[in-house]
Amino acid sequence: MTGTPGPVTGTSFVPGPHLLGSPRGRDWPRPPAGLPTGLPAGRDEPPPSADVVVVGAGPAGLAVTSALWHHGVRDIVVLDRGGRACGRFFARTDRLGQRVLRSPYEHHPGVEGFRDCELLDFARLHWGRLTPVERREVRMAQAGHRSVVPVDVFEAYCEHLVATHEVAEKTWRAVVREVLPADGEVVVRTDRGPVTARHVVLCPGEERVAAPSSWWGDGPVPSGVTYWDEPATPGAGRQVVVGAGLTAAHLVSGALEAGREVHWVVRAATEHYQCADVNAKFFRPEGRARIGGVPWADRLELFARYRRASIMFEFRPALARAEAEGRLVVHRGEEVTRVAAGRGGTVELRLANGRLVAGDDAVLALGTKPEIGLGLLPASAVGARDGWPDLDGRTLAYARAPRVSVVGAAAGMVLGPAARNIDGHRVATARVADAVARGLRRDGVFVDALPRSEVGAGV
């Protein structure tokens, strides 16, 4: 089934495809000079104890650690499987060839409520390194309009936060096995030894959704089939992409740019084009209040309606042109029922309508799901309901383990669909960092908070 992309409705913001072309790998000065930005050398095991342990060093973990620094909390251990702040985040964007973020300039892991250099400030400070298109986006952001952020600028800003908030020397490479709440403390068990903390903040991010095992029966995943976040060997010939969201759009776009023919399998009847993967209303306080102020069943319904796969408008012209030229074939409204090895080393996908789609390789981009703490915390502490944890809405602590908090998509039933985005991380971080600092004071730990700013942004 092929056709033209679905109509664009319900929006007045339709950016042009030129926004997708920001350069990558520029040399950015990262003041102040001399501060470490990488994994500390010569240390194999994290300290045995800390006031706070942050699990995960992605954008959420970076935001939490930076916010606690402003609260005067210095005894922090950050545990991350890669040992580098935002390492997996940027590895994933580079795997997709992604050059700009979906989040605008006001959404970033900076700290609300304290004087700090924010992402827009950082871009302005490095005006001379920006392209003309990027400068126009900065002016749009200054005027209060939505604008997109280059991945290159965002990565340099994250490294600025790492340096100025002493994150690198607090970060340890470790795989967290268990988080065990106890009276007055929490034990975090890792592959490099346990760490006992007064408070723990989980920032686990999201994990990819796996394909149903029925696609390949009882056998292994066929050769030539990879997931979107796995390394893939660049190839030629036809590529098949399965998925309907922004990740799939990046994969399709990259294959087309490489001169490949692409078959794109989209389960929905049309692709969704919108500025964000959740309605913009949920980024505002009234949107978050809408989620928190309704019964549980209504929250689930809102999530089903608004948290859906979507593609940035910037992709639409190029994808429509490729489809019209026959370089892109889109199978809309089709379910995959079987994936198997084909002749000559190809991959064959059987669709629900009986059609067979073959390619030299296939990439699966089936979405992501929140990590809510199951597998780390005891199930009794998570209190999962319909796939969501039982959280205190004021502090984002687990209601049954009040010394453990969470920042990220797992807070969705409190903050709404925006919890999975960087803007949601900011809101969650403000609540969690304040609650943790107050908890440390109750524990008798001296916390010397830095001065707050009235506007929360400074250079």
TrEMBL record:
Pfam name, any one: NAD_binding_9
Species per Swiss-Prot/TrEMBL record: Amycolatopsis vastitatis
Taxonomy of origin reads: Bacteria, Bacillati, Actinomycetota, Actinomycetes, Pseudonocardiales
- Annotated region Disordered: where? 1-51
Spell out the protein name for this chain. FAD-dependent urate hydroxylase HpyO/Asp monooxygenase CreE-like FAD/NAD(P)-binding domain-containing protein
Q: Which Gene3D superfamilies match?
A: FAD/NAD(P)-binding domain
FAD-dependent urate hydroxylase HpyO/Asp monooxygenase CreE-like FAD/NAD(P)-binding domain span: 53-206
Q: Which PANTHER family does the UniProt entry name for this protein?
A: L-ORNITHINE N(5)-MONOOXYGENASE, PTHR38663
Show the InterPro entries listed in the entry: FAD/NAD-bd_sf, HpyO/CreE_NAD-binding
